[in-house]
Amino acid sequence: MERLVERLEKAVERLETVCQGPGMCGEGSSKGVAQYVQAFDALLSGPVAEYIKISKEVGGDVQKHAEMVHAGLMSERALLVVASQHQQPAENAFSALLKPISEQIQVVQNFREKNRGSKMFNHLSAVSESIPALGWVAMAPKPGPYVKEMTDAAMFYTNRILKEYKDVDKKQVDWVKAYLSIWTELQAYIKEYHTTGLTWSKTGPVATEGAKAAPAAPAGVAPPPPGPPPPPAPVSSSTDDSASRSALFAQINRGEGITSGLRHVSDDMKTHKNPALKNQGGPVRSGPKPFTAPKPACNANPSQTTSPKAPPLLELEGKKWRVENQENATNLVISDTELKQVAYVFKCTNSTLQIKGKINSITLDNCKKLGLVFDDVVGIVEIINSRDVKVQVMGKVPTISINKTDGCHVYLSQSSLDCEIVSAKSSEMNVLIPTEEGDFTEFPVPEQFKTVWNGQKLVTSVTEIAG
């Protein structure tokens, strides 16, 4: 009987130890971890876990990418725990706390750049374009809309995945739904707990660059004890304080006599009545410079950070023509083409490219001041993330897609007048139609629309602006 009692006592001790860990037993979870950290954990165990699971089933580059995304989310959780235990720090300290998230975003985006030949390039691009959403913690006062904007950036690629695999591979469709649900749920999470920015503790110590959250204790292991309290602030001499305070009150209690020691200032000593005083020697003393907040040490959007220039490239890789990193190249020509080949033009600036013959598709990505002339395309010409580009069709093309591009001129031929032009999130688009005289007539693509409810559905029409 005594041995049984001893075993029960030991079991109770073990349970009490376990329940001291955050999120382990009943009330212990609410006391050990802030409510918004628990809500973020629910996001990790829900949509994120589903995304990781399906990514593993897809395998390959998608699985590797998912592991990087998960690492970024865990870095964000660590920052949330720090914020729940500390007061908001100064800008430079906050920038240091953001650095792990910023670095992980860069890792995710670099993986896409290093695997442009991957069969899962659309998957990698969807993640790479939207992963800066992790930077919402630095996007006060509107972190939610920022996440929405980053999610929209992924839509172009997720739509391509859905179009390619809709009736072929249901697992790919599930992957898209699982990935997008992460950002949808994150927006709802932000709206509830961090509406105008990351919520910091009101009572804890001010966060510093070295502030770290204690890692979540695994099941059955008690968390480490809290660190020692900060050293007390140095105490000044109470004798000096009381002496100076007594002298101050003695001066005040003199009443009108307090001004007896002031010197009279005559009119000839006043600068507004004697301007000549301003021209006399001696530097003019100015007040202190206004305080300016230090600039963050890290960039919230790592995609804007500078990186070493990649070498220019023009080569045929399998069935893909790769034209990359060309600058000031005005005589680029691809002539030996086949119907099954595609062309991918990336990050070319102030250059001109001519593609002869018939080709399957052409994609311009992140190009600036690029001129493209081609004969025939049997699929689609896509213009993405570009600026000030000109595209001329010499033969036929069924579809031209313009997405996230500012400044695009499309010159059509007589045989391509039935071409469909699809645009989204773009501006300054013009289509030039050939005339009988051999010139072109320019027509702008509408950018502003009006949407009304007709009682059954939304009806959208182009807005005509007079002026």
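(the above was protein one; protein two follows)
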Amino acid sequence: MNELQEITDDISKLTIVHEIVLNGDFKPQAASFSPDSLENRVKETLHKAFWDNLEEQLSASPPDYTWAIQLLQEIKEALLSLLLPRHNQLRSQIEEALDMELIRQEAEHGALDIHGLTAYVLGTMARLCAPIRDEEVQGLQSLTDPAQLLREIFRVLGLMKMDMLNFTIQTLRTHLQEHTVQYERKKFQQLLDKLPSSLDRTREWLCKAAAEVSASSSQPPPHPAVSGSAAAQSPGPGSSSTTVPSLGSVLNRGYMNLLCWEPGQKEYPETLFMDQARLQEVQAQVNQLTIIAAVLLVTSGMCGSTLCGSPGIVARLKRVTKVLLEGLSCTRCEEALEDVGDQVLQEVSRTLSQLGYPAFTTDKCASLKGQIKSIADKGNAVRHVIEQRIHSFLSLFISPDGPNSQKDFPKGLDTIQEELLEVGHRFGRVIQHNRQLFAPYYSGILKNVLLPDAEPDSDTGMDSF
């Protein structure tokens, strides 16, 4: 059980650091439950019981400060946790003003000034809080009931602690980015030592990529399990040299295969598990952009450049298509494209009328809607061409040189250029970090698979990543 807990803790730490580095918007949030959930009802019941009891204690004659003193102790600890190392003077002031031993003695003798203590706490909170909390802290000044005031102080201090945590993360992000590869690799190796078989799915993923690279090459595969396209030469039986795939070409193929990953059929490679959500989001956006571009291309081909050159029509068609496709699964794509066809036809008909052109015939309307609906089929010719162009463009973002500005942008995709560039940059950031982090593991697996007879540390002439 202890070892399992250690593994869980290691995974948690690794995931948090990875998220901080790759997600610039990462901000921890306080735990929250659905209003109707059992967890929330239990939480609300316990909290209400606590604060009601506190109010009873403070309203008694003479007041009972047992729980109030406990709260003041926690408030003191919260204030101290908000201090930076340079706040030595303020730390001393808090220790003196909230001297818990003195507070207990005053409570025992009926001389505890609860209002004076809360006033000091509010003043200190005003000095320490972020500007976004100024109004909330100031609003506490108007509360006169000590139980309610302590409750609200506790709530706002919780927000301030979260603000401080996010500030610390933002401050450390640059430092973490400089050292994250070494840290993440060390933590991953520690997990690997405890779970020796934890690269099985990664090996399977790379072998599949190698086989595909081999199949696309004119050269026969050097080994029954795998192969390559871009290749290097190395000694082999029966000949002076044998063609083997380059490590980089196989790894790049593996990365591009992630854009076609069938959800639920296979588990993600272990080395990409922390990025699975990010990559699946990229995959969904790529699929959506593929369909949008295909719809616009089909519409343009049917309507002609004159109509599609009308100001704003392409933007309107793009907007309505995107809205109807938002959040849909592949299984509902055909149904959504029926709605898209209806909306596109309405927009086209309205524009034809505005420009004084004759309306489409019934057959032409049916043809346009039918062509749009057929895009749901992954084998659709227009969709296939668009998908190939998008994937080819995105592959540039995982190469060392990256895309060469407008020169590399695929023809026919101008309508989705802004979105495609944004997706490409996000995809590239994730992949480049993953390549840098796990290169030694990928290299070891591929050399073992592609050149099983080579010495482990030998220089086979294969390229690096």
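Reviewer note on protein two: Residues 219-230, 232-241 have pLDDT under 50 and may be disordered.
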